[in-house]
Amino acid sequence: MIPAASPNFDERPGGVAFLLLHYTGMRTAGAAIARLRDPAAKVSAHYVVDEDGTVFRLVAEEKRAWHAGVSFWRGVSGLNDASIGIEIVNPGHEFGYRAFPERQMAAVTALCRDILGRWPGISPRDVVGHSDIAPDRKQDPGELFGWRALAAAGVGLWSEAPAPPGDLLADLAAIGYDTRLAARDVIIAFQRHFLPEHLSGAADRVTAARAAGLRALIDAQG
């Protein structure tokens, strides 16, 4: 792990309850790290993971980094307060979105497991992407990110077991999404994470069944 301290942080008002994953959305890792360390930019993250698996530490986990922006998950707003943020190097949808290399995903998985070991209060359902907590603004880490493999390694939540479709928006709200936003934005954010092969943006039966199955898993876990 390489220290790359950013001045863009302040004190947390409480503890840590969420782990948020982003992509950098910039042309190069160097440009992304430079921006996250620029006082004028007023953005940061706790970690950056490069495509070759190199991990950079920018902000101590005990401090509040500035990566979530206007955000909401499971009734909590302003998720910078209680989250650890990881920026994963990828040019993103604007500059040539591409798959995340195996070495990078292995490093992300190991880093997430380390973080969860230090912060056992983060539940699997609270390991989420930027698009999950800000579906009207963000697409990252996107539909090519390996959420399924990450969950298989013990990081986050995944279910492909369908359940009888119910009220899709009610199920999405129960999972954690802010359903006060435009329905299409919320639905496609859910699909990017939990149904990446089906980015319809529509409240169709396939999406409703996957959401109902995920909600049933969450309910079963208590």
Q: Features of this protein?
A:
Muramoyl-pentapeptide Carboxypeptidase, domain 1; two-stranded antiparallel ribbon; 222 residues; six-stranded mixed sheet; Lysozyme-like; globular; 8 helices; alpha/beta; 10 strands; 2 domains
- CATH homologous superfamily classification of the largest domain: Peptidoglycan recognition protein-like
Assigned CATH architecture of the largest domain:
3-Layer(aba) Sandwich
Task: List the total number of helices.
Answer: 8
End-to-end Cα distance = 36 Å
Strand percentage lies at: 5-15%
The run of helices and strands is EEEHEEEEEEHHEHHHHH
Total beta strand runs: 10
Q: Averaging pLDDT over every residue, what do you get? A: 97
CATH class of the largest domain: Alpha Beta
**Radius of gyration over all CA atoms, rounded:** 17 Å
The shape is globular
What does it look like?
By secondary structure, the chain is an alpha/beta fold. It has 2 domains: 2-158, 3-Layer(aba) Sandwich (Lysozyme-like), CATH 3.40.80.10; 159-222, Muramoyl-pentapeptide Carboxypeptidase, domain 1. Helices cover 34% and strands 15% of the residues. It is built from 8 helices and 10 strands. It has helices at residues 29-36, 92-95, 102-118, 130-133, 147-152, 168-175, 183-194, 205-221, and strands spanning 2-3, 9-11, 18-23, 47-49, 55-57, 63-65, 72-73, 76-77, 83-88, 127-129. The protein has a 6-stranded mixed beta sheet with strand order 1-5-4-9-3-10. Strand 7 (72-73) and strand 8 form a beta hairpin. Helix 6 (168-175) runs parallel beside helix 8 (205-221). The N and C termini lie far apart (36 Å). The mean pLDDT is 97.
